[in-house]
What we know:
By secondary structure, this protein is of the alpha+beta class. Helices cover about 30% and strands about 35% of the residues. It has two domains: about 120 residues, Probable inorganic polyphosphate/atp-NAD kinase, domain 1 (Rossmann fold, 3-Layer(aba) Sandwich), CATH 3.40.50; about 160 residues, Tumour Suppressor Smad4 (Sandwich). Strands 5, 6, 7, 8, 9, 10, 11, 12 and 13 form a nine-stranded antiparallel beta sheet that branches. It is globular and about 60 Å long. The two termini are about 15 Å apart.
Amino acid sequence: MFVILHNPLSKNKKSKRTTKKVVDHFKEKGIPFRLKSLLKIKDIEYYIKHTPEDIKLLLLGGDGTINTFINKTYSLHMTHDIYVMGNGSGNDFLRTLKHEPTRYQPILKLTHNKKQRFFMNGSGIGIDGMIAHKVNQSLKRNKFNYFFNTLKGFLAFKPTYAEVTIDGELHTFKKAYMVGINNGQYFGGGMRITPDAKLSDEYMDVVVVHGMRKLKLFAVFLSVYFGFHTKLKKHVFLKKAKHVKASMFTNQVAQCDGETYPKTKTIEVENTNKLAHFKVFDWETLDKLYK
Length: 291
């Protein structure tokens, strides 16, 4: 049996059609299920803890939904099979998981302004946080909207001096636009910002975009969709890491999995040594489980 956990606000209230397709498919196949809105579960940790282990969980939503789920269940020792189907505006973690379908994935921890947040896909500070903040404030969330807010971010953002300490080694950048610390390969709804990132290893991938004019920055961001930006070594710094502390010397917007935190100057990211075990869900998977 499946418990289908869905977020009715995912993809800006347009997830109902996808949820309906999933429900209709389960009914058509005669597969037992129970549909639960994540917004109506007061205590997800309690709910999961009291759900029998033989029941499979299907999480419908994007990066934000997965992020919320991880933070609300972090203290649990998860034994259920947890499947994920994209139903959000980003779905970047799922993109990497499809390329690298590992059974276990590391959970990372972001510390900002003396607060902590766990995440699965990516975090950062700088122009990426500003753009994510603008997107979150928009009435619509789609690729065009992200592209439009990216343009607005380019015009408004002022690069600043940054210090990034990677596993104890200090790196400095005079005009940094962003410092990203990622577990997955993608951010921003399909931009392949860290193409060498692997969910199966113990390392995060750090990317710093710095020292260029805004016109060139725009060209770099377009190339990110294909991973070509990694060839611009003069302006794109990449490194593997286990622990990262990044500081930008003016107030910035930090982000993890698209959730944003304004008025932040310093972030710290590390591996928690705790693992999640998400699986990609599709119709073939369902057919294999219920032949």
